[in-house]
Design a protein that fits this description.
Largest sheet: none
CATH class of one domain: Mainly Alpha
Length: about 675
């Protein structure tokens, strides 16, 4: 009954009455369901109240109600009608990742959305042509006769003319041109070949409009076209990039069904799809299965697997695969060796990286700039500057000129160490060698100055970058916004936030995290909700960093119950808390005089083998000492050593200070002696 009434109000555009009834049913102890939320979201979208629609959509998720296909289709359809196709595609991507399969309504909405954008552009073009005919061509009699028919066509015919014209472009410049070409092809007589359709589907996929390409394929099939191997390879690629590996393998089945044999592009695309969707194990199984069935793999196949293994921290497995390749038909190459060296360096296994470096030289491979860059980066990560400098000099002696990436590695490493003067000296070296600094160089310098809290100098580097003809990107703005927020200069940060949006730079999750962190630390919690709404309206999902920032802000502003509720909501949404999350939770509960809850959670984490670090132990030990639970704190201290978690100065201070504060210096002395005896200090 409630849902029927709310839906009725929504359809009559009486949105205020519908919303009042929604809150009234909640006050009376009734829980809204998916139907309630869908009716309200649809009504707000219909009335162009996007912020309210997104707010309700997010509220629905937070209440543990999973959106269904209808929920997603409401948003996709509404965005498409507004011509905001990129937002609609982002929602389709979110929808697929959440396990909801798009249906005909979804795909039709996407196609209509692209059509709206295209028609708007063509209407502008048509109007512009009329202006030309009236005010330009009339001055040229020789042109006016032959041109008249072009400009006296009715609007539909004029649009068709434009479509036909665009359909002949072999390389559409944007998604609107691709959609125009596609529609023209489908309505053309004689019937176009699948090869022509493949060109357009391929161009859309290259533009990364994967959901759109999938929707167009559905239309191609519905029009009776028979897909060929190329078509299905494009479809597989699109499914892989939206995380739908089941559908990607279904397309492989379709290849076999139409009588085609999958080629190496098909197989490599599927392997890459498994790797980019964090299923490297399945990619290796797929590789073994293909070899068992007699399929021939190539260098790209093995390069894909090695890259997938290294990116998931399984570099030693990649080495085994490389060794296995040495005994097969496809031999390892420099790119594969570089990938493994880079993987070892990122895992800080520079000894293994150097061993492979020397082994590849012994086998007759010549290292290139990429090889040296990987090794230099690895040594910089481990603060081994002499080794990095030695490699840099060796590189030059071998006749390999350092490129901008080489210099950027050194600049970035210096800045992260707080040695901005050294970084500036390297920039001077860059210029003397004839290499021009790029955005990465300037961003590293900006970040370096922010790390030492010199945001003013960071701003000067930002301005210098623009003066030198380089465009500031989202990363550049994020550095400054984060630097300002850390110094509680939140108003200045928001001015930059507005500036970046005015330059058509779209804030990302890092931008929003910095702003929320700044608002929390400056005590402006009332403004946080608006930023969260905007973030979700922009299609950005909250990550673990965001939750940690918000949890910490709620605890420090004494909103303890809200913080606990947020943590529970986070777990309900299957967002895995990390050690930082638990440390924030424990600290908040201890400081909020809820030690029993903190102790219960800590014991649960210990029993279940969660990797607790020194900060988590310190928070719990400090809480126990402050509560006068001396024996329990000491026991936890020894448990810390047993779990091979070493004490640091903060832990030591947390133990001794409460005792000294209570005038219990003898007890502090006895504890120190005991800690020395047991080897804790």
């Amino acid at each position: 009954m409630w849902n029927t009434t709310i839906d009725g109000f929504c359809k009559e555009r009486c949105i205020t009455e519908a919303r009042d009834l929604f809150y009234e049913m909640i006050d009376q102890g009734m829980s809204p369901d998916i139907v309630t939320y869908n009716s309200l979201v649809h009504a707000f979208c219909f009335m162009d109240k996007w912020l309210e629609a997104i707010k309700l959509f997010n509220q629905m998720i937070l209440e543990g109600i999973n959106p269904n296909i209808h929920s997603f289709n409401i948003l996709v359809g509404a965005f498409c009608k507004e011509g905001r196709v990129t937002k609609a595609e982002a929602i389709v991507g979110m929808m697929m990742k959440s396990g909801v399969k798009p249906d005909e309504v979804t795909y039709n909405s996407l196609m209509d959305g692209h059509y709206v954008v295209t028609v708007c552009l063509l209407q502008i073009s048509f109007a512009f042509n009329i202006v030309l005919s009236r005010y330009v061509f009339c001055k040229f009699p020789l042109l006016s006769t032959s041109s008249a028919s072009s400009f006296l066509l009715s609007l539909p015919v004029a649009l068709a003319t434009n479509f036909s014209f665009r359909s002949y472009g072999s390389n559409p410049r944007n998604i609107e041109e691709s959609m125009a070409s596609f529609r023209a092809l489908l309505h053309r007589h004689p019937r176009p070949s699948i090869v022509q359709i493949n060109k357009i589907l391929g161009s859309i996929a290259r533009m990364k409009h994967f959901p759109t390409a999938i929707s167009l394929f559905e239309q191609v099939e519905s029009k009776g076209f028979t897909p060929c191997l190329v078509t299905l390879n494009i479809l597989i690629n699109c499914f892989c990039h939206v995380g739908q590996m089941t559908l990607a393998f279904s397309a492989l089945g379709k290849i076999l069904k139409v009588g085609c044999q999958p080629d190496t592009i098909t197989l490599n695309t599927l392997m890459k799809g498994l790797c980019i969707n964090n299923d490297v194990g399945k990619a290796l199984d797929f590789h073994d299965d293909l070899l068992a069935k007699g399929f021939q793999l190539d260098v790209v196949s093995y390069g894909t697997l090695i890259n997938g293994l290294c990116k998931t921290g399984k570099t030693r497995c990649a080495v085994k695969l490389l060794q296995k390749m040495g005994r097969g038909q496809v031999k390892p190459n420099l790119v594969m060796c570089n990938t493994i060296i880079d993987g070892f360096c990122k895992e800080k296994f520079t000894t293994e990286a150097c061993d492979l470096f020397h082994e590849m030289i012994d086998q007759g491979m010549s290292p290139n700039a990429v090889t040296y860059n990987c090794l230099i980066h690895g040594f910089c990560l481990m603060d081994k500057w002499p080794e990095a400098a030695k490699l840099f000099n060796q590189m030059i002696l071998k006749g390999i000129n350092p490129n901008i990436h080489t210099f950027n590695i050194l600049v970035s490493a210096s800045c992260k160490e707080g040695c901005v003067n050294k970084a500036q000296a390297i920039v001077g070296m860059i210029m003397k060698s004839g290499v021009k600094p790029d955005e990465v160089t300037y961003n590293s310098l900006m970040d370096g100055y922010c790390l030492i809290n010199n945001v003013g100098e960071s701003g000067k580097v930002f301005n210098k970058m623009i003066t030198n003809g380089l465009a500031a990107d989202v990363f550049s703005y994020n550095i400054l916004i984060n630097g300002l927020c850390k110094l509680n200069m939140v108003d200045d940060a928001f001015n930059l936030f507005k500036e970046m949006k005015s330059k058509n730079l779209f804030p990302d999750i890092v931008t929003y995290n910095s702003l929320v962190d700044g608002l929390c630390k400056s005590g402006k919690m009332s403004f946080v909700q608006n930023i969260i709404y905007e973030m979700h309206a922009s299609g950005h999902a909250s990550d673990i960093i965001f939750y940690n920032i918000l949890l910490d802000g709620l605890y420090k502003s004494h909103h303890l119950d809200q913080a606990v509720a947020l943590f529970k909501r986070m777990v309900d949404q299957r967002i895995q808390p990390d050690t930082c999350t638990y440390t924030i939770l424990l600290n908040g509960l201890c400081n909020g005089n809820r030690l029993n809850e903190a102790w219960f959670i800590f014991q649960y984490l210990l029993v279940n083998g969660h990797p607790l670090d020194v900060q988590a132990y310190t928070v719990m030990i400090s809480g126990l000492f402050k509560a006068g639970l001396f024996d329990e704190a000491k026991a936890l201290l020894y448990k810390m050593k047993e779990n091979k978690c070493p004490l640091d100065f903060v832990t030591f201070d947390a133990i001794i200070r409460p005792l000294l504060g209570k005038g219990e210096s003898d007890k502090a002395k006895d504890l120190l002696n005991e800690m020395f005896t047991r080897g804790l200090l």
